[in-house]
Every structure is written in C-alpha cells, then in structure tokens.
C-alpha cells in the first residue's frame, strides 16, 4: 500500500519479489477532494401541492449524492413531490468518504380521515408542524359552526363533537401560523369518512 498526499499523476509498477520480475506499469491520476462543511435546504411554502426540497452545499469539492429518507441516491439536489411530514436529508460524497444528515419538515394535511378505530387514519391533523410555527387550528362544518380547535402538536381530531360521532362529510379548517417570520392564514377542507 502506497499512500499519496499530493494530487498528480503517478506510475504504479508491480514487481514479483520472489523472481525480481517487473509487471506492466499503469498511470494513476490522484485528485484532491474535500467534503462539504455543511449543507442547507429550502422547502416550498406550507401546503404546496407539489412540495419541493432544494439542497445547497457549503464548501467542499467533488461530486455528491443526495438522499431523502432511505430512498435511492441521486445526483440532483432537488426532491419533488415530497410528502408532508418529517424527513431525513443526506449529502454523501461520491467516494463514500463523508455523509452529512439533517432533518427537514414539509407542512401539509391529509385530504381525508377515517375515525373507525382500525389504527389507520383515525385522527386528522396538520402534518409537519413544529412549535416555532405558533399555529392555531380551527375545524368547521359546512355552515361555519366551530366543531373543534385542535392543538397543532397534539393527537389531532377524532371526528367527534361534544363526545358524539359526527356524520361523514366534508369539513373546513383554518390555520393561523408563522412561516419564514411571516404570519399566514391557510383555509381548505378535508373529508371525514366512516
């Protein structure tokens, strides 16, 4: 094993120590790469139909792979169609020498929920919120009657009003929240299916 510390072209010649014979020589180019010192990312605004995460590297030379959660490696630093929720972003040197990881979040909401006790989609809540968003969420029926105010970091809404199951239909919600140091209001609807 011969370690090289300076970039350049080097000859590699193999010699059989038992016979003293030399093999063929090969030229090897050694290049210098440095790992990125950090990376950052941007996410499209909350509730985007096609959420996109764009990764930006700080420092480093060479080529990199980008990974979302445990998905396939890609050479493009942009991830499109990202689902709402919390995700792990990774930047990996193409030689496999370094890996940087950060957590990212995409804010969204489910278009329906089924509070039938089967453990799947039993509650409705905004996905990807953190305490820094200072969110207030209100759910209304189609006539504008307040059905529930839910804690943005809580378990969500179970489809009950005053302890009673309410009918399958569409419900509307508003969310007041802070994003990029701006106060925002978002309104939309979702379906309750029993």
Mean pLDDT value: 91
Enumerate how many helices there are, as a single number.
0
Overall 3D shape:
elongated
Low-confidence stretches: none
User: In angstroms, what separates the terminal alpha carbons?
Assistant: 68 Å
- Strand ordering within the main sheet: 9-15-14-10-11
Detailed description of the structure:
This protein is mainly beta. It contains no helices and 15 strands. It has strands spanning 8-15, 22-30, 38-43, 52-58, 64-68, 78-80, 85-93, 99-106, 112-113, 136-140, 146-150, 160-161, 164-165, 169-179, 182-192. Strands 9-15-14-10-11 form a five-stranded mixed beta sheet, with no helix packed on it. A three-stranded antiparallel beta sheet has the order 3-4-6, with no helix packed on it. Strand 7 and strand 8 form a beta hairpin. The chain is elongated, with a radius of gyration of 27 Å. The termini are far apart. The model has no long low-confidence stretch (mean pLDDT 91).
What would the keywords be for this entry?
48% strand; single chain; 194 residues; three-stranded antiparallel sheet; mainly beta
What does the secondary structure layout of this molecule look like, with pairings?
Blueprint: E1 8-15, E2 22-30, E3 38-43, E4 52-58, E5 64-68, E6 78-80, E7 85-93, E8 99-106, E9 112-113, E10 136-140, E11 146-150, E12 160-161, E13 164-165, E14 169-179, E15 182-192
Parallel strand pairs: 9-15
Antiparallel strand pairs: 1-2, 3-4, 4-6, 5-7, 7-8, 10-11, 10-14, 12-13, 14-15
Compact description:
Strand 12 and strand 13 form a beta hairpin.
């Amino acid at each position: 094993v011969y370690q090289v510390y300076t970039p350049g072209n080097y000859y590699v010649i193999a010699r059989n120590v038992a016979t003293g014979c030399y093999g063929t020589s090969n030229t090897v180019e050694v290049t210098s790469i440095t790992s990125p010192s950090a990376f950052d990312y941007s996410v499209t605004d909350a509730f985007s139909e096609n959420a996109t995460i764009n990764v930006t590297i700080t420092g480093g030379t060479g080529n990199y792979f980008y990974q979302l959660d445990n998905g396939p490696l890609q050479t493009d630093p942009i991830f499109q169609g990202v689902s709402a929720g919390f995700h792990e972003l990774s930047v990996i040197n193409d030689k496999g020498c370094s890996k940087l990881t950060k957590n990212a979040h995409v804010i969204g909401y489910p278009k329906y929920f089924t509070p039938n006790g089967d453990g799947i989609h039993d509650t409705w809540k905004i996905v990807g919120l953190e305490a820094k968003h200072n969110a207030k969420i209100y759910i209304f029926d189609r006539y504008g009657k307040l059905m529930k105010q839910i804690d943005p970091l809580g378990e969500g809404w179970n489809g009950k009003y005053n302890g009673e199951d309410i009918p399958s239909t569409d419900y509307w919600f508003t969310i007041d929240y802070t994003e990029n140091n701006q106060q925002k209001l978002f309104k939309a609807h979702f379906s309750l299916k029993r």
